[in-house]
Design goal:
The protein is an all-alpha fold. About 60% of the residues lie in helices and about 0% in strands. The chain has one domain.
Length: about 190
């Protein structure tokens, strides 16, 4: 029990959370490129799609490590159930609730991707829309959780992620660098 009360789990929790946020930022950005069929001669669409899939697996591993180290840490009173069910944590109830909602949405998207061959494409696309909501909720969780004693580099890691979440919604980000139109400008094409 003494080993679980050391600050190492707290540091590991914060570090895995920051790495997971950075990885999910890359996953969402690459997913936007895949959805808009952006690819070139140097890096093709197939490579972008494979990188998107591979990074999502690594991001899920870091997310699970983040949750496990949070649950194992005795300094905060979060149980395993608070990772899945909102408003059940005694520690930073609202911040952990945003994290639980984000985790539930991300798991739903990930499971739908694993079952993509067995699910209708329209259903998969609909469920995949929840990745945007899950990512936004994860940003709120990161911001609200970082309001405690975290170094500047740790608490400011959510800001670039927020910019990357908003950038595909602007019209200029969907143009091909060679000047050709890549896809429709409506956010419907991003799912």
């Amino acid at each position: 029990m003494i080993a679980l009360a050391t600050p190492y789990l707290w540091y590991t929790t914060r570090a895995t959370g920051i790495v997971a946020l950075i990885l999910f930022t890359l996953v969402v950005s690459l997913g936007t490129l895949v959805a808009n069929r952006i690819g070139g001669t140097i890096v093709g669409r197939f490579e972008i799609n494979e990188l998107h899939r591979s990074l999502s697996i690594v991001a899920m591993i870091f997310l699970v490590l983040h949750i496990l180290t949070t649950v194992l840490d005795n300094y905060v009173s979060t149980g395993l159930i608070s990772a899945f069910i909102p408003m059940t944590s005694a520690y930073k109830r609202v911040a952990i609730t945003f994290g639980a909602v984000a985790f539930d949405l991300i798991v739903a998207v990930w499971i739908s991707s694993l079952l993509k061959l067995r699910v209708a494409n329209s259903t998969w696309r609909f469920i995949h829309w929840f990745s945007w909501i899950g990512f936004a909720t994860a940003l709120v969780h990161a911001y609200m959780s970082a309001l405690t004693r975290v170094p500047v580099w740790g608490s400011s890691s959510w800001a670039p992620a927020g910019v990357s979440w908003c950038s595909p919604l602007s019209g200029d980000s969907l143009d091909d660098p060679r000047g050709r139109r890549v896809g429709p400008r409506s956010p419907r094409s991003l799912a």
